[in-house]
Amino acid sequence: MDTIKNPTYPVLFLLSLIFQYSCSQRSASNEEEIFGIDFKTPKFRLVETDTFFFNNFVDCNMAEAWIGDTLRIFPGKYGEDPVWGFSDELKFASGANADEVFSTAASEYIAPTITKNAPIGQPGLHGAVWFETVYQDSKDPSGQTLYAIYHNENYPETLPFNPKTGEGYIDKNWPLGLTDRITPAAVPRIGIMKSTDGGWNWENKGLLLEDKQDRMILKPHNTSKTFAGGVGDPSAVAVGDYLYLFYGEYGYPATYDSLNYDPQKEWEGQCISVARIRIDELENPQGKARRWDGVGFNADWDGIGKPVSSLQIQRTEGGGPASSPTGGFHWGPSVSWNTYLECWVMLMGKVEGQSWIGDELYISFNPHKELGEGANSQAWTKPELLVTKPGHVLWYPSLQPLNTPDDIKNKYTSLKLGQKARLFFKYSDLGKYMSEYIIEFEKPKY
Questions:
Q1: Which of 35, 100, 107, 438 has its CA 20 to 30 Å from the CA of residue 298?
Q2: CATH number belonging to domain 18-442
Q3: How many angstroms separate the CA atoms of 17 and 23, rounded?
Q4: Distance separating alpha carbons of residues 149 and 63, to the nearest angstrom
């Protein structure tokens, strides 16, 4: 999604040297019920540093991979967009370590060759894409084979409804979007591209997940100025034979009917969800991914799944559906495996009003490395407050490697990190992606 234009939010700056949080909300019985093991939530602290500015456009999770001894990142946006205009800002930068790459001047970024948009009404790539995660094929010792999991946004104009396929959207009672002028809301989908030369050239392989027209939330109920529905903002991690996709679910968990609309039902089906696809099916992924349905990965790629319940904000605590003008949901997951803690770490944002307004970021943990066993993919701790910046709008938190010999030796990325990492996030109201803190984790004492 694009940056909010002409913000009117006051800018307040909060100073502190060290923030430290610990989790003690859950009783032992709740831990056993959710995790199935004796698990105590790790502690963490934020150490304030000099501000580290990222020097180029970021509007998504930071997709990156090591190509040999070179770290390469892929921020930006590419493709057709009738609201914001065509974009060719999806580019890459390379370097010997994280600090070097993140310090690259915008003028030094390189634009890769990407599959072009297909004509409207014809099969192919439609709308704009953002690379959110890069999966590196473990079977290619050169490290050159990459799969980019992308967030893809469309409108009724770029993807009109096709009654034969059920794809696309109908421009009737369509909700308003993010801009300050009268423009339509977008619909996100999740797809995948492939590169065999380290990211210089990309071929579109197809969609992984989408919500179709019958699940779009329309006028008069959708007044959030966010999305009409859909799935997006993914973070993907590989475990065993599968790629697990954590993503935002913004659609109605049934056929939307304005006469029978139920905000409680909408809330129940939204927040951060998870799906998976076999890695050996990434070459031809269409229709192969399966969503979590409350029991297992049984729902279709375009079907109705269930979100991770522990990540939902309860209605009694201010939670609400994505179509609400007051928000009340977590979004934008960024997932990494922490080698020091030996558990998964998830960062996320929080929507508190129209146009993705929210000034808080949160963190959650999952002790189960094997996400495919039982309900392990659902075993996330209740989100804890990580950062708050009153008066600002915070998007896209991620943990990034440091410029240390150990981080370089282990080739850490935003998908795998150690005891310390640099915290980045976007001040959307300022249009700046930056880091002000290093996070340091502490193992809990049993």
A1: 35
A2: 2.115.10.20
A3: 20
A4: 9
